[in-house]
Amino acid sequence: MNVAESSTMLVWGAATAYAIALVCFTMLLARHADTGVREPAAVGAVRAPSVEGATSATSTTSGPDVPARRPVAEGIARSTLFAGLALHLGAVVTRCARLEIDEYVLDPAVGRWVPERTNEDDWELCRNFEAFLTFGRPVLAAISRKTFIGDLLGKEPEERLAGTLALTMDLVRQGAAVVRSHDVAETADLLRVYEKMRQT
Q1: Cα–Cα distance, 25 to 13 (Å, whole number)
Q2: Global pTM?
Q3: 79 pLDDT band (50/70/90 cuts)?
Q4: Integer Cα distance of 90 and 135 in angstroms
Q5: Domains of the chain: which residue ranges?
Q6: What is the 3-state secondary structure (H, E, C) of 56-84?
Q7: Res. 18: pLDDT tops 50
Q8: In angstroms, rounded to a whole number, what is the distance separating the alpha carbons of residues 55 and 68?
Q9: Distance, CA of 199 to chain centre
Q10: C-alpha distance from residue 154 to each of 53, 126, 148, 150, 180 (Å)
Q11: How far is Cα 21 from Cα 126, in angstroms, rounded to an integer?
Protein backbone atom coordinates (compact mmCIF):
# COMPACT_ATOMS: atom_id res chain seq x y z
CA MET A 1 0.00 0.00 0.00
CA ASN A 2 1.47 3.35 -1.02
CA VAL A 3 1.63 6.51 1.10
CA ALA A 4 -1.55 8.04 -0.33
CA GLU A 5 -3.57 4.90 0.33
CA SER A 6 -2.20 4.43 3.81
CA SER A 7 -3.04 8.00 4.85
CA THR A 8 -6.51 8.28 3.35
CA MET A 9 -8.02 4.83 3.13
CA LEU A 10 -7.89 3.68 6.75
CA VAL A 11 -11.64 3.31 6.77
CA TRP A 12 -12.84 0.02 8.25
CA GLY A 13 -9.39 -1.33 9.12
CA ALA A 14 -6.99 0.58 11.32
CA ALA A 15 -9.09 3.74 11.38
CA THR A 16 -12.14 1.91 12.64
CA ALA A 17 -10.04 0.40 15.39
CA TYR A 18 -8.75 3.91 16.07
CA ALA A 19 -12.31 5.21 16.37
CA ILE A 20 -13.32 2.35 18.65
CA ALA A 21 -10.29 3.02 20.82
CA LEU A 22 -11.35 6.68 20.96
CA VAL A 23 -14.82 5.70 22.16
CA CYS A 24 -13.41 3.38 24.82
CA PHE A 25 -10.97 6.02 25.99
CA THR A 26 -13.58 8.76 26.32
CA MET A 27 -15.85 6.37 28.20
CA LEU A 28 -12.97 5.60 30.56
CA LEU A 29 -12.35 9.27 31.23
CA ALA A 30 -16.06 9.89 31.77
CA ARG A 31 -16.15 7.19 34.45
CA HIS A 32 -13.22 8.63 36.38
CA ALA A 33 -13.92 12.35 36.19
CA ASP A 34 -16.21 14.96 34.76
CA THR A 35 -13.91 16.37 32.09
CA GLY A 36 -16.56 17.50 29.66
CA VAL A 37 -15.54 14.79 27.22
CA ARG A 38 -18.49 13.36 25.34
CA GLU A 39 -18.77 9.84 24.02
CA PRO A 40 -18.62 10.09 20.22
CA ALA A 41 -20.76 7.97 17.94
CA ALA A 42 -18.13 6.18 15.91
CA VAL A 43 -20.06 5.61 12.70
CA GLY A 44 -16.88 5.52 10.63
CA ALA A 45 -13.49 7.16 10.70
CA VAL A 46 -11.00 8.18 8.07
CA ARG A 47 -7.43 9.24 8.79
CA ALA A 48 -6.86 12.59 7.14
CA PRO A 49 -3.58 13.41 5.38
CA SER A 50 -1.14 15.38 7.49
CA VAL A 51 -1.00 19.11 6.84
CA GLU A 52 2.38 20.78 6.87
CA GLY A 53 2.41 23.99 8.86
CA ALA A 54 -1.03 23.18 10.19
CA THR A 55 -0.86 25.78 12.95
CA SER A 56 -0.84 28.54 10.35
CA ALA A 57 -2.76 26.82 7.58
CA THR A 58 -5.77 29.14 7.58
CA SER A 59 -5.32 32.50 5.91
CA THR A 60 -6.60 35.57 7.73
CA THR A 61 -6.74 37.58 4.51
CA SER A 62 -10.13 39.11 3.70
CA GLY A 63 -11.53 39.37 0.22
CA PRO A 64 -14.38 38.27 -2.04
CA ASP A 65 -13.34 34.61 -1.86
CA VAL A 66 -11.98 34.57 1.69
CA PRO A 67 -14.63 35.48 4.27
CA ALA A 68 -13.25 37.49 7.17
CA ARG A 69 -13.57 35.92 10.60
CA ARG A 70 -16.18 37.58 12.74
CA PRO A 71 -17.31 37.30 16.35
CA VAL A 72 -20.32 35.20 17.30
CA ALA A 73 -23.45 37.28 16.79
CA GLU A 74 -25.56 35.44 19.34
CA GLY A 75 -25.37 32.52 21.75
CA ILE A 76 -22.16 31.99 23.69
CA ALA A 77 -19.71 34.89 23.58
CA ARG A 78 -16.68 34.00 21.47
CA SER A 79 -14.23 34.34 24.36
CA THR A 80 -16.40 32.15 26.59
CA LEU A 81 -16.94 29.61 23.82
CA PHE A 82 -13.25 29.03 23.16
CA ALA A 83 -12.18 29.43 26.79
CA GLY A 84 -14.60 26.74 27.89
CA LEU A 85 -13.46 24.29 25.23
CA ALA A 86 -9.81 25.04 25.94
CA LEU A 87 -10.41 24.30 29.62
CA HIS A 88 -12.02 20.92 28.90
CA LEU A 89 -9.49 19.87 26.26
CA GLY A 90 -6.65 20.97 28.52
CA ALA A 91 -8.07 18.76 31.28
CA VAL A 92 -8.02 15.78 28.92
CA VAL A 93 -4.39 16.45 27.96
CA THR A 94 -3.41 16.79 31.61
CA ARG A 95 -5.13 13.55 32.61
CA CYS A 96 -3.55 11.67 29.73
CA ALA A 97 -0.11 12.93 30.69
CA ARG A 98 -0.64 11.88 34.30
CA LEU A 99 -1.86 8.43 33.25
CA GLU A 100 0.92 8.14 30.64
CA ILE A 101 -1.56 7.69 27.80
CA ASP A 102 -0.04 8.68 24.47
CA GLU A 103 -2.53 7.42 21.87
CA TYR A 104 -5.60 9.63 21.92
CA VAL A 105 -7.47 12.18 19.83
CA LEU A 106 -9.04 15.44 21.00
CA ASP A 107 -12.69 16.10 20.10
CA PRO A 108 -13.72 19.79 20.21
CA ALA A 109 -17.38 18.64 20.30
CA VAL A 110 -18.76 20.78 17.50
CA GLY A 111 -22.54 20.61 17.78
CA ARG A 112 -25.34 21.52 20.16
CA TRP A 113 -24.03 19.83 23.29
CA VAL A 114 -25.09 22.65 25.60
CA PRO A 115 -28.44 24.51 25.53
CA GLU A 116 -26.81 27.88 24.85
CA ARG A 117 -24.95 26.68 21.73
CA THR A 118 -26.25 28.09 18.43
CA ASN A 119 -25.61 27.29 14.79
CA GLU A 120 -23.40 30.36 14.52
CA ASP A 121 -21.33 29.12 17.46
CA ASP A 122 -20.67 25.90 15.56
CA TRP A 123 -19.70 27.77 12.41
CA GLU A 124 -17.34 29.93 14.48
CA LEU A 125 -15.67 26.83 15.93
CA CYS A 126 -15.22 25.45 12.42
CA ARG A 127 -13.84 28.73 11.05
CA ASN A 128 -11.23 28.69 13.82
CA PHE A 129 -10.68 24.93 14.01
CA GLU A 130 -6.91 25.30 13.80
CA ALA A 131 -6.95 26.85 17.28
CA PHE A 132 -7.42 23.36 18.72
CA LEU A 133 -4.04 22.27 17.30
CA THR A 134 -2.27 24.26 19.99
CA PHE A 135 -2.52 21.26 22.33
CA GLY A 136 -0.16 19.32 20.07
CA ARG A 137 -2.57 16.38 19.72
CA PRO A 138 -4.49 14.96 16.72
CA VAL A 139 -7.89 16.64 16.51
CA LEU A 140 -11.13 14.96 15.41
CA ALA A 141 -13.48 16.56 12.88
CA ALA A 142 -16.92 15.19 13.79
CA ILE A 143 -19.33 17.32 11.79
CA SER A 144 -20.99 14.72 9.56
CA ARG A 145 -24.67 15.55 8.91
CA LYS A 146 -24.75 17.96 11.84
CA THR A 147 -27.76 20.22 12.45
CA PHE A 148 -25.97 23.49 11.70
CA ILE A 149 -25.18 22.22 8.20
CA GLY A 150 -28.74 21.05 7.65
CA ASP A 151 -30.23 24.31 8.89
CA LEU A 152 -28.04 26.33 6.53
CA LEU A 153 -28.95 24.21 3.51
CA GLY A 154 -32.51 23.30 4.49
CA LYS A 155 -31.65 19.60 4.20
CA GLU A 156 -32.56 16.50 6.18
CA PRO A 157 -29.64 14.47 7.66
CA GLU A 158 -29.44 11.99 4.77
CA GLU A 159 -29.30 14.89 2.28
CA ARG A 160 -26.35 16.72 3.87
CA LEU A 161 -23.49 14.90 2.11
CA ALA A 162 -22.39 17.81 -0.11
CA GLY A 163 -22.37 20.26 2.78
CA THR A 164 -20.57 17.79 5.02
CA LEU A 165 -17.86 17.13 2.43
CA ALA A 166 -17.32 20.85 1.79
CA LEU A 167 -16.84 21.54 5.48
CA THR A 168 -14.74 18.41 5.97
CA MET A 169 -12.26 19.55 3.33
CA ASP A 170 -11.84 22.90 5.06
CA LEU A 171 -11.33 21.31 8.48
CA VAL A 172 -8.72 18.94 7.05
CA ARG A 173 -7.03 21.94 5.46
CA GLN A 174 -6.92 23.52 8.93
CA GLY A 175 -5.31 20.43 10.41
CA ALA A 176 -7.97 17.86 11.38
CA ALA A 177 -6.22 14.49 11.73
CA VAL A 178 -9.22 12.15 11.91
CA VAL A 179 -12.64 12.54 10.32
CA ARG A 180 -15.81 10.94 11.68
CA SER A 181 -18.25 10.26 8.87
CA HIS A 182 -21.56 8.58 8.11
CA ASP A 183 -20.53 8.44 4.44
CA VAL A 184 -17.16 6.73 4.69
CA ALA A 185 -16.54 5.91 1.01
CA GLU A 186 -17.35 9.44 -0.17
CA THR A 187 -15.20 10.98 2.57
CA ALA A 188 -12.30 8.71 1.68
CA ASP A 189 -12.61 9.79 -1.96
CA LEU A 190 -12.52 13.44 -0.93
CA LEU A 191 -9.38 12.92 1.15
CA ARG A 192 -7.65 11.02 -1.64
CA VAL A 193 -8.31 13.85 -4.11
CA TYR A 194 -7.31 16.46 -1.51
CA GLU A 195 -4.00 14.72 -0.86
CA LYS A 196 -3.33 14.37 -4.59
CA MET A 197 -3.77 18.11 -5.06
CA ARG A 198 -1.22 18.78 -2.32
CA GLN A 199 1.50 16.70 -3.96
CA THR A 200 4.32 18.62 -5.62
Answers
A1: 18
A2: 0.66
A3: confident
A4: 7
A5: 3-52+68-198
A6: HCCCCCCCCCCCCCCCCCCCCCHHHHHHH
A7: no
A8: 18
A9: 23
A10: 35, 19, 10, 5, 22
A11: 24
